[in-house]
Specification:
The complex is a heterodimer of chains A (about 300) and B (about 475). With about 300 residues, chain A is an alpha/beta fold. Chain A has ten helices and 14 strands. Chain A folds into two domains: about 210 residues, Rossmann fold (3-Layer(aba) Sandwich), CATH 3.40.50.300; about 60 residues. In chain A, strand 1 and strand 2 form a beta hairpin. Chain A is elongated, with a radius of gyration of 22 Å. Classes of the chains: A alpha/beta (about 300), B alpha+beta (about 475).
Chain lengths: ~300, ~475
């Protein structure tokens, strides 16, 4: 069952198409990372899902409800934290928690206390006196204390030091056992460690959306050694990205790697290859190559 | 309701210092207004200034500021608000904001009004309808639009900018539309209360539409468009949608006639002699005054002119609506007094033209006369209010009266040593059926010029019994015979 489902979802701002015909499904219980370069449409997508923005076309369903009809019943099961959220800065951390408590039937006092303690939040301080990282932590604590079914985090780690990031992730993982998490972030290295699914958004379009394990299996960095500088074959095989040559070495990224067929395919395209090295790629390297490839295509 | 109360308590906590300032300002307003009277203020100009400043500027601006801050606690425009992804019910949120305004603006104002009325010598509960209407009108016509503006802005600075832009628009459009202003009807003119009611209706419906749209769906773009459209309608003064004849026709329909007026006729009376003294015509115009006599006015009643206009048919058959000026003197003769462009007059003066006059009258009756000695006071005059005159005060030539909520519709005063009844200074005849005038203060004051040596006076109050319209067709008239 999908917790989030979009059908041809589009959002335009005057002449700018921020999101175009987005078809996305986030399975229940997954930790879904929505990634992409700046201006890809991640925040717009999330704001449209949260009914903060109205879609220009298409539909989105969140927890089985059309996003345009999300109301108190649905929001009492959603925890949303965004890097650019305007919090009630005049409130103290304690007052923020006690203020929000009556809104949520499932508010868990003990868990709220535990979150405040675990995140080391200064309870008596006003939010305006806190650092940016502390404010994000306060927002997260106030969004987890009622056991939401869906946790939506929009760039929560942007600009935070690694210690705070680790604390946030730790708090999040502790909660995500029975919740679905949707997270957008630039911090690919951090996401890689805990995401189960990933979607890549670029220019408002979803390039792919799949399980992390299948993505990691699909991408490989290929390095081929020749006796003399190679000539690139034409046509260049689809799915082999960003070919670069350096003396007698050719490097590219295979986005459709298959352990059974790819080595044979390489030998067929490059019969004069002296050696072939196939290496798994970290998430960051995958997205750098995707971004480079897209830039070249543009 | 529980959620609305929860939000309300949060707003009280957040805005507690601002609330204290507003309550202090309201108390200062109550004190200054309770001790205010036209004569007293003449003796104490500073108090007068403070009272006027509080009533006319400080208090409304402070209310607006507080209403805006209350709304900005959960701002509506934008996409970064913390609260929009929290389980707020829009009805609770809107209810909490309204409750806050009622608690810290309307309720203190009600208490202040009661205090003012008591200290001014009136009983607050003597006219509960007036008191209730006064409070509801301030809430609906002043406070709700303030809340609505806050609903489509993100800071009080922007609210001030919106206010300034609206004022500039009004000034610019007033200059542009100046030549057409005579076709419109405004406040201070008989029948103007209908235009006022229309303005209030536009304000109220716009405010409600914006508030509901914003709190329910946060459609800021649409709400701002509604605001601009409503502002345009108000800036244009509603004249395009409510011309004078429609206003008076509405007044005749809305106010039920309490007397048979079928006997009243209007007759063109060329032999009535010269018109009463009028200001000289400008160089490029000629004043034309047409006398019309009223016959058949029932005994014990008086017919007063609300408005009159003429349509002149030129020899070529084209109509020409005259600009409007009118006077009335003596009581049974009304004058259609108009300025005709000199070039037009020269062309038409010796040619017989056809004239069609439309006359709107109000029949006043049930006169009640009350004698009052001059000097000392204040005296309680039934139907008028509390009146006082200080023959040794700085202004020995003014009698001032104050009444709760609104002045009687029509009052004349006859002083001894003066053989003519005189109306109020700046007599504003308002036939509205409302129990209270719109304004922040519950006290309405008026004054009369006192002739030197006068020792007594008699007030005569009259009530409107019917609003009627008469048409008068004059097939042939030579304008030159009536040019002055």
């Amino acid at each position: 069952m999908s917790v989030v489902r979009t059908r041809e979802l589009s959002k335009s701002f005057r002449h700018t198409h921020a999101v175009e015909k987005l078809n996305l499904e986030i399975p229940e219980g997954s930790i879904f990372a929505l990634v992409g370069p700046n201006g890809a449409g991640k925040t717009t997508t999330i704001k449209t899902l949260m009914n903060i923005l109205r879609p220009s076309a298409g539909t989105a369903e969140v927890l089985g409800t059309n996003s345009r009809r999300l109301g108190p019943a649905e929001f009492s099961q959603i925890g949303y934290v965004s890097e650019n959220q305007e919090l009630p800065l005049w409130m103290t951390v304690d007052y923020l928690m006690s203020w929000l408590k009556p809104f949520y039937p499932d508010w868990d006092n003990a868990w709220a206390e535990e979150l405040l303690r675990q995140l080391d939040l200064p309870r008596g301080r006003r939010l305006q006196e806190l650092s940016r990282g502390m404010r994000i932590k306060a927002a997260l604590a106030s969004s987890l204390a009622y056991h939401p079914k869906l946790i939506v985090l929009d760039e929560p780690f942007a600009g935070l030091d690694s210690l705070v990031r680790d604390e946030l992730i730790e708090a999040l993982l502790e909660r995500c056992a029975d919740a679905t998490v949707m997270i957008s972030s630039h911090d690919l290295a951090e996401i890689e460690t805990f995401s189960s699914h990933i979607g890549y958004l670029e220019g408002g379009c979803l390039r792919f959306s799949e399980e992390m394990s299948s993505l990691a299996a699909r991408f490989r960095e290929i390095e081929i050694t020749f006796d003399e500088p190679p000539a690139l074959p034409a046509p260049w095989p689809q799915g082999w990205l960003n070919p670069t040559t350096s003396a007698a070495v050719l490097r590219f990224v295979d986005s459709q790697f298959n352990a059974d067929s790819t080595p044979a395919e390489i030998r067929q395209v490059f019969p004069s290859a002296r050696g072939v090295s196939i290496n798994p790629m970290p998430l960051r390297a995958i997205f750098v190559s995707l971004a480079k490839s897209a830039r070249k295509a543009a | 309701m529980r959620q609305a109360w929860h939000i309300f308590l949060k707003d009280v906590r957040r805005l507690r210092y601002e609330v204290i300032v507003i309550l202090a300002l309201t108390a200062a307003y109550a004190w200054s207004q309770a001790h205010w009277s036209p004569l007293y203020s003449m003796r104490n100009g500073r108090l007068n200034q403070i009272a006027n400043m509080l009533r006319g500027f400080l208090l409304p601006m402070a209310w607006w500021y507080l209403a805006s801050l209350a709304v900005y606690g959960e701002p509506l425009p934008g996409d970064r608000q913390f609260w929009v992804t929290r389980p707020y019910r829009w009805t609770s949120l809107l209810g909490a904001k309204l409750l806050f305004i009622v608690a810290f603006v309307s309720f203190p104002l009600l208490l202040a009004d009661c205090l003012i009325l008591i200290l001014q010598g009136f009983h607050p509960w003597a006219n509960p309808g007036g008191l209730l209407w006064h409070e509801v009108a301030v809430f609906a016509i002043l406070l709700l639009p303030m809340i609505a503006v806050a609903c489509i802005t993100t800071s009080f600075a922007r609210v001030v900018l919106v206010g300034l832009a609206t004022i500039v628009s009004i000034v610019v459009l007033a200059i542009v539309l100046g030549p057409y202003a005579h076709t419109m009807i405004g406040f201070g003119v008989e029948g103007g209360w209908i235009w006022g009611a229309l303005v209030c209706l536009v304000l109220l419906s716009t405010a409600l539409a914006i508030m509901i749209l914003q709190y329910r769906a946060r459609r800021t773009g649409v709400s701002r468009l509604i605001f601009v459209c409503a502002a345009a309608v108000l800036v244009l003064r509603g004249g395009r949608i409510l011309p004078r004849d429609t206003t008076f026709a509405l007044q005749s329909c809305l106010v039920k006639s309490r007397i048979d007026t079928s006997s009243i006729t209007a007759v063109f009376s060329p032999g009535s002699g010269p018109p009463p003294a009028v200001s000289p015509a400008p160089h490029d115009a000629v004043r034309v005054s047409l006398p019309v006599c009223l016959y058949g006015v029932p005994s014990g009643t008086t017919a007063v002119l609300d408005a009159m206009w003429a349509e002149l048919t030129l020899p070529n058959g084209n109509p020409l609506k005259t600009s409007l000026f009118f006077g009335q003197d003596p009581p049974d003769t009304v004058w259609h007094d108009t300025l005709v462009e000199r070039s037009v007059f020269e062309r038409l003066k010796s040619t017989p033209v056809r004239l069609h006059l439309t006359i709107h009258l109000t029949v006043l009756g049930n006169p009640h006369t009350e004698g009052v000695p001059l000097g000392g006071g204040p005296y309680r005059v039934p139907g008028v209010g509390l009146c006082e005159f200080d023959p040794r005060g700085p202004d020995r030539s003014t009698l001032s009266c104050r009444a709760p909520f609104r002045q009687p519709v029509y009052v004349l005063a006859r002083f001894d040593r003066f053989d003519k009844e005189v109306p109020r200074e700046q007599q504003r005849v308002d036939y509205s059926p409302y129990p209270a005038d719109f304004g922040i203060s519950p006290i309405s004051d008026s004054s009369w010029p006192v002739p030197t040596g006068a020792t007594t006076l008699a007030f005569t109050t009259m009530k409107p019994l019917a609003h009627i319209r008469r048409e008068l067709d004059i097939p042939k008239v030579q304008l030159a015979e009536f040019a002055y």
